[in-house]
């Protein structure tokens, strides 16, 4: 039976320049491979070693990129290795099969959101009204499923994020602060549900996962085995569980370590 490896991307396997955490002397820094270009500029990286490991993983397991990015944002990424048959975008709102969103899956998700949480329009209106223009740079809606703000982090009051979290909780939504983005996401919109669907379709015997943010919690708990790096929201809160291995590695080297862990588990299955 195949092994599924469902991994978050940003700050788990791929890293912006600001998130690389290259704390070693310059001469000892790892060689980097650019895996995303946006508006003619390099945007995301992984180490060359991580790229080789990911290519090996793609040959030995069902690798499923699993991201909160929209389909358009995901499609900017050029990962090494064989093209994934499945990918999870928009936090589980879209299940891509050979690069195309499965319409039946998307219909199931939108019906579940309509039944179980406050509508997107209400949340979007609250964000527009409550966020301070002093620190907000962009308001965005992602694939008509959830909303996020791009902010100036140094000007942002952490108490505001906590207050937003309480407001959202009462409406069936959750809030996640990742780098310069504040996400408001419906609770029924989960990466884990999409991962389970891939497992059902492939007949997987083992599921592995990795992630660094609050929005990865359900994915990590749903997998047979999970890993989280030493940075990110989950590290900041000390999140762990019996099936989750906490890694000390931070930054782009954490991505390399996670891929080594994945390969070890796949080969030991």
UniProtKB/TrEMBL annotation:
Keywords on record: Hydrolase
Metal-binding listed as a keyword: no
GO terms assigned for molecular function: hydrolase activity
Gene3D superfamilies named among the record's database cross-references: HAD superfamily/HAD-like
Entry keyword Hydrolase: yes
Official protein name in the record: HAD family hydrolase
Species per Swiss-Prot/TrEMBL record: Streptomyces dubilierae
């Amino acid at each position: 039976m195949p092994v599924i490896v469902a991994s978050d991307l940003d700050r788990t396997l791929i890293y912006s320049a600001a998130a690389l955490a290259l704390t070693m002397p310059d001469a000892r820094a790892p060689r980097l491979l650019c895996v995303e270009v946006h508006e003619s500029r390099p945007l995301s990286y992984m180490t060359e070693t991580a790229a080789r490991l990911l290519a090996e993983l793609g040959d030995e397991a069902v690798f499923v990129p699993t991201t909160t990015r929209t389909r358009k944002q995901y499609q900017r990424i050029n990962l090494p290795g064989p093209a994934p048959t499945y990918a999870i975008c928009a936090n589980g709102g879209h299940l891509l099969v050979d690069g195309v969103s499965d319409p039946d899956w998307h219909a199931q998700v939108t019906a579940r959101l309509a039944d179980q949480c406050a509508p997107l329009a209400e949340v979007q209106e609250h964000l527009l009204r409550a966020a301070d223009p002093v620190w907000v740079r962009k308001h965005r809606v992602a694939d008509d499923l959830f909303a996020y703000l791009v902010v100036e982090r140094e000007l942002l009051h952490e108490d505001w994020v906590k207050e937003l979290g309480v407001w959202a909780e009462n409406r069936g939504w959750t809030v996640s602060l990742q780098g310069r983005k504040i996400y408001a996401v419906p609770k029924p919109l989960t990466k884990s549900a999409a991962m389970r669907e891939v497992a059902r379709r492939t007949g997987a015997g083992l599921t592995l996962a990795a992630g660094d943010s609050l929005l990865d919690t359900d994915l990590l708990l749903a997998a047979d085995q999970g890993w989280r790096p030493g940075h990110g929201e989950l590290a900041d809160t000390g999140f762990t569980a019996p099936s989750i291995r906490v890694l000390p590695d931070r930054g782009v080297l954490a991505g390399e370590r996670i891929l080594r862990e994945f390969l070890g588990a796949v080969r030991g299955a």
